[in-house]
Amino acid sequence: MSSVRTEFKSKLPKVGTTIFTTMSRLAEEHKAINLAQGFPEFDCSPDLQKLADKYMRSGKNQYAPMAGVLPLREAISEKVYTATAAEYHPDSEITITSGATEALYVAISTVVHPGDEVIVFEPAYDSYVPAIELNGGIPVFVTLDPQYESIDWEIVASRFSEKTKAIVINTPHNPTGKVWTLQDLQKLAELVVKHDVLVISDEVYEHIIFDGRAHVSASSIPGLAERTFVCGSFGKTFHTTGWKVGYCLAPKDLTSEFRKIHQYLVFSVVTPFQFALAEYLNEPEHYLRLSSFYGQKRDLFIDAISDVGFVIKPSEGSFFQNVYYGNLSKENDFTLAKRLTVETGIASIPVSSFYDKAVDCHVLRFCFAKNDDTLLRGAELLYKIKW
Questions:
Q1: What is the band of 1 on the pLDDT scale with cuts at 50, 70, 90?
Q2: CB-based contacts of 296: which residues, under 8 Å, 6+ apart?
Q3: Quick one: pLDDT band at residue 37, thresholds 50, 70, 90?
Q4: Phi, psi of 272 (to 5 degrees)
Q5: Is the dihedral of CA 134, 137, 198, 84 positive or negative?
Q6: Parallel, antiparallel or unpaired: strands 349-350 and 363-367
């Protein structure tokens, strides 16, 4: 019998190690300040930690119900209703997931069949396209400049076809920091109703919005709520990215199909953390103060790098700040990001990595979810760039 194995065929031949892993690994290797990967440097609230400990010690350590523990689903329902007046039934329209990434993957898997087209705005978070392709779907791109001021909805309309099954949106947006307006969501509603298309809405930064703006959820827009999977994350909201607790809101019929896949992907999510989050949500101030908290960090970082020479458009939301350096150098953004990590000691993300064809707009993304002294030390290093 031959021991030679048949050549293995990859299901994601174009996918390698993510840029976040690559840059974080490089930062660690060269002892660089890591403003690349999007995770908070600081810990979550001691009160939230005490709640997690309380529920671990009280025996909440076995499997949770597949859909999530009821107190957390009820707390989410109340939170969403207070913010948007949208009603989601805890039993049949809210599912607790292993982070928003699982919610997004399951939502895409629920609706996409081989040959279906899915519209994606790029630059795009890196999990969308692989999920579409793993399910046999075809991504169709609306390509935006990372510093875009507005969306050309005529271009978006031109991307719809008879094969379009879904559209993925993200607001506040990673990596641009753009916050969609009410008018944007209304334009989207017109198109998806016209073409009978479903929506996957990534809203993980919903509570991190600056300068008096308001988050407009797809759940609050007539015509969208009935056909949308809204994906959220407690990791981003409460500085607990390692807990991997997210959720998905969707109408009953869509949730029923969503759960068919969710149950075989993870079945359920870590139990004591769910109970802890449910109790922590009883105090809305825990998430309502987030915008001012991160707004201070954004302003601190922007002010600290104001004389480097970058063109800076302040982030409207999320905990990322992009900087344009094309006025200083035409160096490829990936090359520059690597060089800054190795030579200057500060890691960032080249925004070209968020595009299908690696469009280089000479923009770097920095994460400001860090302690103030880390941001100031990082800023000092940026003044040492050799252009």
A1: low
A2: none
A3: confident
A4: -60, -30
A5: positive
A6: antiparallel
Instruction: Extract the tokens encoding 253.
Output: 């019929």
The CA distance from 199 to 76, in Å, is 20
- Secondary structure element (H or E) that encloses residue 346, with its range: strand 346-347
User: Quick check: 240 and 47 in contact, CB under 8 A?
Assistant: no
3-state SS string for 70-107: HHHHHHHHHHHHHHHCCCCCCCCCEEEECHHHHHHHHH
Structure tokens at 194: 């016209």
pLDDT per residue as tens digits for the range 111-154: 999 999 999 999 999 999 999 999 999 999 999 998 888 999 99
Q: Are 240 and 290 in contact, with CB atoms under 8 Å apart?
A: no
Q: How confident is the model at residue 367 (pLDDT cuts 50, 70, 90)?
A: very high
Alpha-carbon 98 to chain mean position: 14
- The secondary structure of residue 221, as a DSSP letter, is S
Q: Tell me what pLDDT residue 267 has.
A: 94
pLDDT band at residue 176 using 50, 70 and 90 as cut-offs? very high
Ordered domains of the chain (ranges, CATH): 19-44+288-382 (3.90.1150.10), 60-285 (3.40.640.10)
Structure tokens belonging to residue 332: 């490829």
Question: Would you tell me how many other CB atoms lie within 10 Å of the CB of residue 182?
Answer: 11
Closest CA to 354 of 112, 113, 125, 40: 125
State which amino acid sits at residue 382. L
* pLDDT in the model for residue 334: 94
pTM above 0.70, yes or no: yes
CA distance 271 to 290: 25
> What single string gives the DSSP state of each residue in 270-331?
-HHHHHHHHHHTT-THHHHTHHHHHHHHHHHHHHHTTTS--B----SBSSEEEEE-TTT---
